[in-house]
Amino acid sequence: MFRKILIANRGEIALRIIQACRELGIPTVGVYSTADRDSLHATYADDDVCIGPPAAAQSYLNITSLVSAAEITGADAVHPGYGFLAENAYFAEVLADCGLGWIGPPPEVIRLMGDKAKARQTAAEAGVPVLPGSGDPLSSVEEAQGLASEVGFPVILKAAAGGGGRGMRIVRSAAELEKSFDTAAHEAEKAFGDGSVYLEKYLEEPRHIEFQVFGDRHGNVIHLGERECSIQRRHQKLIEESPSPALTPELRSRMGEAAVRLCTHVGYQNAGTVEFLLDRDGSFYFMEMNTRIQVEHPVTEMVTGVDLVKLQILVAAGERLNVRSGLAPRGHAIECRINAEDPVTFAPSPGRLTTFHVPGGPGVRVDTHGYEDYVIPPHYDSLVAKLITHGSDRAEAIARMRRALDFFVVEGIKTTIPLHREILDDPVFRSGRLSTRFMEGFQARRERAEEGA
Ligand code: MV4
User: Fold this and answer.
1) Handedness of CA 422, 428, 434, 435 (dihedral sign)
2) Whose CA is nearest to atom 26 of ligand 1?
């Protein structure tokens, strides 16, 4: 087992990793930028090292500083959390070269899945359904036109180096494609240093359903069910839940088996997420794979009873998976992301938490690095807390979320708590008929209600 783990991250996920390490009896090293001196992850870690100035490029993304921090503290492994260097294959390679353990998948698999066009091809090779579209990146607008007329409009252009919604373009006609293709490639080149673009048939109103997967170092791969993440705004998830209201046990096992097939095909290890689009007729298609622990992992923990962060550490140290694939979910869990943002404009709202009272009681979990008088720095993402509720069914999870939102008191900054209250009261949300267009419809209903008032 690892002797000491360095956590190359900050905020709630750094604290979450410290919790897991403490339960395993493994000491931790926290690293912090000068903007995070008063942060709980620095306080709670057994050792802490300042790694640089506020800008992430000079601290949480500074590989040299991180390796030095591991050397001087005697850490023998690194947990990257999510964001920052979590999906940086080069970082994983540097750590291996320095004799440090990496709590994540092999670098080659990170690199493969980071290329969204290659990931799509690999899924198809593994027998996982993909939408009709291009095998290799498109080399000309003529090739794009040929493919688009084969699959039929609308189509979507995606940057191979993008992901998570960055560098996408929906195209509804040949005339539009003529204009969009070069712009898309240029933008991809500018944003990612790689102008490769591929094309797929565009689905108008799918659900985003992702499967939690895990692999160990002995070739075993399992899935731990799905999360429904259709409630997003500008590709930022707002609410996630498990199980999805749309899945039957039969569909769950077919999608889960597809996710496992892909992971087995690539020799996946550690925690991962296979994202699918689910169409209204029950067809599902591979979208992307994320090679890290995700923000929304707690909803899976609540319905499976598995500590995913602990499991990451155990399998990275060479232990066998001790969890069966495809367990039936126990009850229902929902997560609301509480961001330091204006609930209407979504403008960031950093600053001091003058009051911070977290809810508790049956079925309530709060993952947060916040405390009264903590000052949220402006340099990083705006997540202040994840509020997760669990119930025997969806209705009970919703009722618990609704009251937990009422009992969550944050003063001094604006948060998305009022927005979550409105979504939880929304009849379409309550019906469970979700899609990636949910927020558009919700905003329209909200504006209509305001005009009526
Ligand atoms: C799509 C799609 C429809 N058809 N691909 C958005 C994030 C990135 N991972 C891919 N995304 C999409 N890809 C095809 N062929 C719709 C989306 C999409 C979306 C997906 C999940 C959650 C929210 C979304 C919002 C807009 C578009």
Assistant:
1) negative
2) 436
Which of 179, 201, 223 represents a domain boundary (last residue)?
201
157-182 in b/e burial notation, b at 16+ Cβ within 10 A? bbbbbbbeeebbbebeeeebbeebbe
Instruction: Tell me the three state secondary structure of residue 367.
Output: strand
Per-residue pLDDT of the chain (453 residues; tens, 9 = 90+): 999 999 999 999 999 999 999 999 999 999 999 999 999 999 999 999 999 999 999 999 999 999 999 999 999 999 999 999 999 999 999 999 999 999 999 999 999 999 999 999 999 999 999 999 998 999 999 999 999 999 999 999 999 998 878 889 999 999 999 999 999 999 999 999 999 999 999 999 999 999 999 999 999 999 999 999 999 999 999 999 999 999 999 999 999 999 999 999 999 999 999 999 999 999 999 999 999 999 999 999 999 999 999 999 999 999 999 999 999 999 999 999 999 999 999 999 999 999 999 999 999 999 999 999 999 999 999 999 999 999 999 999 999 999 999 999 999 999 999 999 999 999 999 999 999 999 999 999 999 988 886
Q: Which two tokens stand for residue 79?
A: 């947990």
Q: Of 201, 231, 252, which one is at a domain's C-terminal end?
A: 201
CB-CB contact of 384 with 411 (8 Å): no
- Distance from the CA of 230 to the center of ligand 1, in angstroms? 10
Q: Ligand 1 pocket check: which of 87, 156, 201 to mutate, most ligand atoms within 8 Å of Cβ?
A: 156
Supply the residue whose CA is at minimum distance from atom 15 of ligand 1.
Answer: 202
C-alpha span between 46 and 25 (Å, rounded): 11
- Among protein residues, the one whose CA lies closest to atom 9 of ligand 1: 164
378 beta partners: none
Return the best residue to mutate from 115, 157, 168, 204 for the ligand 1 pocket (most ligand atoms within 8 A of CB).
168
Domain that holds residue 190: 132-201
| Same domain flag for 137 and 97 | no
Task: Tell me, yes or no, whether 188 and 79 share the same domain.
Answer: no
The pTM is what?
0.98
Mutate to test the pocket of ligand 1, among 198, 235, 275, 443 (most ligand atoms within 8 A of CB): 235
Residues 19 and 59 in one domain: yes
Residues annotated as catalytic are: 292
Contact 333, 299 (CB under 8 A): yes
Both 318 and 439 in a single domain?
yes
Number of structural domains (the chain) is 3
Ligand 1 is surrounded, with C-beta below 6 A, by 131, 156, 164-165, 200-203, 206, 208, 232, 235, 277, 287-288, 436
Report the atom number in ligand 1 closest to the C-alpha of 165: 7
